[in-house]
From TrEMBL, chain A:
Transmembrane segments: none annotated. Residues 1-23 form the signal peptide. Residues 298-308 have a biased composition (Polar residues). InterPro entries: DUF4198. It comes from the Bacteria. This is Putative GH25 family protein. Residues 117-160, 287-308 are annotated as: Disordered. Keywords: Signal.
Length: 308, 158
């Protein structure tokens, strides 16, 4: 049990949670966020690494990427490809307004005992059972060929001998069921012409970004206001991390940590123009899954802050 | 009597400057690869408020699916302040890119008197981008400023 848990956590962190047990950050980097053309595309890099936005660790699988068109309908990614360090894909921006591109993953993992033996839930091998869910499990086949870093979490095929894929697979005689639900979003926004709000409307599920300043209407000399919601309600006291890209061209990482106020709001003052990675996590006990004592939530986005 | 139409015509040409005239200079640059810059000229009320675009010069002759608008967002200040809400081409506002030289642009006659910030922004393919701003009082004020790289002198006069 003791040896399994860290591995499990690390695996889940790699697949779904940018700021989990591992410090690695999952990021989407759009080639452009403000578009004036009428026949434009955005090309996006997707990776997991420590420094932003340096692809030097792992590609992010593109199987779970979803596109929401400005009218709220589903779009599609094109030309997806996976390199050693980063994946890329394109989206054809054939409608005016704000597009949302990214992942929404829910996952339940944990442990239980069966006949005195320790079992784990959610350590998936191969394709996910519910492939339609677009969860982190979609990463399974895509990640299979990755080399294991020395001493890293991905020691070759370190799957525990005793595991089931989903909560539904827990046998009837199981005891000591300890489950944890994770809900994570990682999304970017690209606007053709005037910014619109349809794709920004909260769904009321988990941790969400409710920007008062439109994410494609930022400029370095104006503070931005972003609100965060949990299950549709303002979420006070959350720590929001903002990290500017391009660390290797300066000395400091330059990360800011801001805490949401009673109204769930932060006000961000930009240190410089550039691309920023934003991440916020929250944990509570309000999981929708039975037996899940804990619900871990994560929200990640990448923001372009132009010079004035 | 017969001269009247000509007088009217003459005054029509002479009076668009009623609200003032903006003079913009596109400098001649000694660079290996030169493309004429995209330029936007707009006014913002001094106390804040919606921007009014006076002129946009871009590659209007491009054909196909991409009628020259792809790089308009490189005029990033203008794009954010008002360009993105303007339908292109815009009557009496948009036009072709200009060669280096000095150009005068009359302000629209229906411009309400008041204090404004006049902005001129230029962005050049394989080149730089520059924004020159100066406060102007419409219609009687005057003022001048100058760019350093992508724009030369910019002035406003009656």
């Amino acid at each position: 049990m003791k040896s399994l848990a860290p591995r499990l956590l690390a695996a889940v962190a790699l697949l779904a949670i940018p700021a989990g047990a591992s410090a690695h950050r999952q990021w989407l980097l759009p080639s452009v966020t403000t578009v004036s053309g009428t026949d434009s595309w955005v090309t996006v890099d997707a990776a997991v690494s420590n420094d932003l936005f340096d692809p030097d660790h792992m590609p992010m699988p593109t199987g779970g990427i979803k596109v929401t068109q400005p009218d709220g309908s589903a779009g599609e990614i094109r030309n997806a490809a996976q390199g050693r360090y980063r994946s890329t894909f394109d989206v054809q921006l054939d409608k005016p307004g704000t597009w949302k591109i990214g992942t929404f993953a829910t996952n339940v993992s944990g442990t239980f005992k069966l006949n005195g033996e320790d079992w784990t839930v959610g350590r998936r091998r191969g394709p996910p059972p519910g492939a339609g869910a677009g969860g982190p499990g979609a990463a399974g086949p895509a990640m299979a060929g990755r080399p294991a870093g020395p001493g890293g979490p991905g020691a070759p095929n370190a799957a525990p001998a005793r595991s089931v894929a989903t909560v539904a697979d827990i046998p009837a005689g199981a005891t000591d069921i300890k489950l944890s639900e994770s809900i994570s979003r990682n999304e970017i926004f690209v606007t053709v012409g005037e910014p619109t709000d349809t794709v920004l409307r909260p769904t009321g599920k988990g941790l969400e970004f409710d920007p008062q300043t439109h994410p494609d209407d930022l400029v370095a000399d104006e503070p931005a206001k972003f609100r965060f919601l949990i299950d549709g309600k303002p979420a006070p006291g959350l720590k929001v991390t903002l990290v500017p890209g391009g660390k290797r061209f300066r000395d400091e990482e330059g990360a800011q940590e801001l805490t949401t106020g009673a109204d769930g709001m932060i006000e961000v003052k930009w240190a410089m123009p550039g691309m920023y990675w934003l991440n916020v996590t929250a944990t509570d006990a309000r999981s929708s899954t039975a037996n899940a004592g804990e619900r871990r939530m994560s929200y990640t986005t990448t923001l372009e802050v132009p010079a004035p | 009597m017969r001269t009247t139409p000509f007088l009217l015509l003459g005054s029509a040409i002479a009076t668009p400057a009623a609200a003032g005239t903006v003079t913009v200079t596109i400098p001649r640059l000694n660079v290996a690869e030169y493309h004429r810059p995209y330029v936007a000229v707009w006014l913002e009320p001094e106390g804040g408020g919606p921007a009014r675009t006076i002129a946009v010069w871009y590659d209007i002759k491009k054909g196909g699916n991409e009628p020259g608008t792809k790089w308009l967002s490189d005029l990033r200040a203008w794009w954010r302040k008002g360009g993105r809400s303007l339908k292109m081409p815009a009557d009496g506002v948009s036009g072709a890119t200009r060669a280096p030289g000095q150009y005068t642009i009359p302000l629209p006659r229906d411009l309400r008197p008041g204090n404004y910030i006049l902005n001129v922004e230029a962005a050049r393919e394989t080149g730089g981008r520059e924004l020159v701003s100066l406060p102007v009082a419409v219609p009687n004020g005057s003022g001048k400023a100058s760019g350093r790289t992508e724009l030369g002198p910019v002035s406003f006069s009656r």
